[in-house]
Amino acid sequence: MRLDIITIFPDYFAPLGVSLIGKAMQRGDITVEVHDLRSWTHDPHRTVDDTPFGGGPGMVMRPEPWGEALDAIVGIAGRRARPAGDAGPAGRPQLVVPTPAGALFDQAAAAELAAFEHLIFACGRYEGIDARVADYARTLMPVRELSIGDYVLAGGEPAVLVMAEAICRLLPGVLGNADSAHDDSFGAGVGPMHGLVEGPAYTRPRTWRGLAVPDVLLSGNHAAIARWRRDEALRRTARTRPDLAARLAGSGMSARDRHVLSEAGFAVSGDDVAH
Fold first, then answer.
1. N or C: more exposed end of the chain, with fewer CB within 10 A?
2. 243 annotated active-site
3. Which domains occur in the chain, in start order?
4. Coil, helix or strand for 109?
């Protein structure tokens, strides 16, 4: 996979060079290029922003450097973007624009983006990027405007770090154990944790400061362990993410799932039980 990141703060992305993604970069499995947007300015002050038309507070990022940056990066990749309607993800770039106004970036979105060979990230600042940039980009490639949560950041850089981590860890060979992703919280349609947050995890020693590892995890009974893990995931989801628990209830559950959620204080009607 190739990641091109456009930003006015290139040093922000040093963390991508460490940990599992850094190792994947060293192996050549992931290529990351960070581009300074100011490289495509042509005035002595390297200006990337201006006052908004119609008035209002703050500044808006100008379209000219963004247009030149996108044109150049598509060229750097050595590819010509296919029409935006082309359904095949392989071989064409996709532009990702972090914005609080975008659709929610979740595990399913991460899995979808992991199927692309080339992602371009546009890090906005101030009051955002001139809207014509996204309109223009859609003539070259698919564009996704995504939000990592219902809050506002100073710029798109932290959101891109989050997205890049979530996407790249799903690529083959990035995780040491490929099965780890199947048991993630919010599993994308597969695995026992689909639609749930993960339950608690334990390691040695068996007893630490008077606190013991649950007996079932030491039993060697894999079916019982799997059921315990799902039960704990259900309980934690009911406690910390009742919105996810409600969505799960609406999709149908086993009688055991319903019982566990009920014990956790989450009301589930009998009609929601899967038979």
1. C
2. no
3. 2-176 (3.40.1280.10), 196-272 (1.10.1270.20)
4. helix
